[in-house]
# Entry
Amino acid sequence: MYNYILKRILLMIPTLFGAAFLVFFLLRLIPGDVCELRLAGTGLYADPAEIELCQEKLGLNQPMIVQFFDFLIGIVTFDLGESMWTGKPIFYEMGLRFELSLQIAIMATITSIFIAIPLGTISAIKQDTWIDYVVRTFSIAGIAIPSFWYGILIVLGILIFTQSWFGEPWMPPLDYVPIWVDPWRNLSQLIWPALATGYRYSAVATRMTRSAMLEVLREDYIRTARAKGLLEKVIINRHALKNSLLPVVTVIGIEFAFLMGGLVVTEQVFNLNGLGKLFVDSVMSSDYAMTQALVMVVVMVFVFTNFLVDIMYAWLDPRIRYA
Amino acid sequence: MAVGLAVSIMFIMVGSLHAGGHIKRGGTLNYIFGSKIPSYDLHRETTFGVIHPFSPYYSLLIRVNPDNPSSPTDFVCDVCEGTVDPAGEDGGKKYTFKIRRGIEFHDGTPLNAHDVVATYNKIIFPPEGVPSSRKAFFKMVESVSAPDDYTVVFKLEYPSGSFIPALATPFNIIYSKKDLDTHGYEWHTKNINGSGPFRFVEHQPGAFVRGVRYEKYHHKGQPYLDGIKGIIAPKLATRVNAIRGDQAAIEFRGFPPKHRDDLKKALGDKITVQESDWNCVLLATFNQQRKPFDDPRVRRALTLGIDRWGGSKYLSKIAIVKTVGGVVFPNHPLAATEDELVKLAGYGKDMAKNRAEAKRLLKEAGHSNLSVELHNRGVDQPYKVLGIWLIDQWKKLGVKVTHRVQASPAFYATLRKKKDFDVSIDFNCQSVINPIADITKFLGSAGNNYGQYNDKVLEDLYDKIARSPSPAEQRSLIRQYEKRALSDMAHIAITLWWYKINPHRSYVKGWKIAPSHYLNQQLDNVWLDK
# Structure
């Protein structure tokens, strides 16, 4: 088991280097830079000398290879530098948003699990009945419609219904308060995006649970369990469910990693100051330093989550670690 | 003592009566804005993303009158006292300002003339390596000095009508000399210590900026609010919903007409709408290093083909553009009247005649089958809306037009570095209406002109305008400049001036719309009728 873990850790290094190389050079293919945008982007008079001064201060006029090695050294030493747009340390900027993104990811994942596993299991057990059809329609709708669309509908729905019920429209708060400071305000802001994204991701997991469960239910050992007279409830809960969860764990794990940095549009819809919104802002501002750092953080989250999923696989199925 | 008491009572009475109503004190104004905040140093930044969140924490030497911000010529003292004399002394070569006594920065340091001098020296004569985005506005200034603790003197090399408006630019906030001397020129990029109506409390990047009332504010009785909170929301739909759902009471930049109508329809009297012409204009810039746009006949044909009066009527229903104007902000005394405008190419109201002339010019230039690529910015309001309208206008001349839309960073790279465009949408958005400075946009030598031309006649005309002490003479020279830039040489085609629409919650009182989203943002006269 230890050798297996060590191998997985060593494999992370080339993955991270490849990601760093790609993000650094791909970003610089996009024309324009942060100084041009910041000083000339308003339409006000922009002094070319001021733009050059800004580029010099940010090191944008240094050779590309020098900038790349600075970036690599920053990653290795965990010093990602400062945002080119705000001048504030990148860790500080990300730290501010991390808490919100983590809470949404957890809430959406919990929502997803609570919907997906029971529905997927019931759908498999009741295969080809009306229950199965309803669950399948529900999950296909979840896959087909993007979560930001649910977000827009939720916001508009809340505005319209609160106005018709209470006479004054209400919308979720726009600024984040940690859950331990004001739980009510925190949940009244985050429950909506968590529901929108949780439903979206539950749809994939529901389909996965259903198909994995159907496969397991056809296995010999399930037939044996039935033949020896075990209760159906025990067969499902103790024998079928655990074995059908392997691919579901993978899907949920990857979704969680994606949720940490990938709620780009949903965060815009609900004006959530999370990592996804920071991503969009930094790309739109040509803030290379911030964009590179965010990509690397997301890559690290993915790599680490995959690592955990692999470990869980090995734990759930001993054949994997001995292979 | 009796006199003092009477003055105090009068003061309280005046302070509590405003526009015929009783001013209510207290409450926190939640306002929303869409721009990202770069550094906190207004002297180096150019975006309203620093004006909206940070103006309330600072004072200016002079400012646009917050009770009459729609006037392009009404300037009043902020940290100075008395009235602002636009003529100055010594034939307009010397301006003296007396500084109010008793003003303190939020850290308790007294504000005096030396702070104003240090601030303007940083803006006008920054040390090498220190950015200052508006030093070019003050080319006429020879020196800034403080003969005593409460007097500031600006000496000019030549009289200039653009000096007073330049002083009132909302970016010219007063820093403490002590801060500059002690902490250096970078300190203000991350720290705030002003003398404005509100004291800075916190900035949560990407989320909000919050401040509270400054009790020692120098305009006695103000501010009326206990606090302010500027919420950051880049998406327009979020900002509109925030006002509808009362998470924010106002957005100071402006909404498109449809959102005004939606809010009014949903909330009725709970929404008040203020509207104004906007000191911002969209232009079509011709790349004169590319054929056939080096030919004035081609450029003139393209400007002749634009139906500005018709566009104003219809586009104003869907976009934030409306007013037909020349090089100067339409409401300014130096702006062209309608009679003067219609004499310029493309401003005549007989479009059949304009288009016939345009086709004739294209034929004469040998470009009857002209193809144009219109370069545009990937922003809906009003860029893409106006771009599509321009394409339609030029197609009526038989011109084939393709639309190349780029995201903002790539858009600026094309304009400023690559220069690989035929015709590009460009814009001229300024803060204080300062025609003599604003019209530099049309000079080929200007840093923000992307047409790549050199017109000596236009440059000479501008020199005369900049140095003319007489408004009447300035006006006459500007008409010649306008005719040269827009009509005879058609270096740039002005499309339509923007139109500012601010729907806000009706309980927000005291704030008056200005012709720029950079102006009237100190919020000292705002109160909540709740």
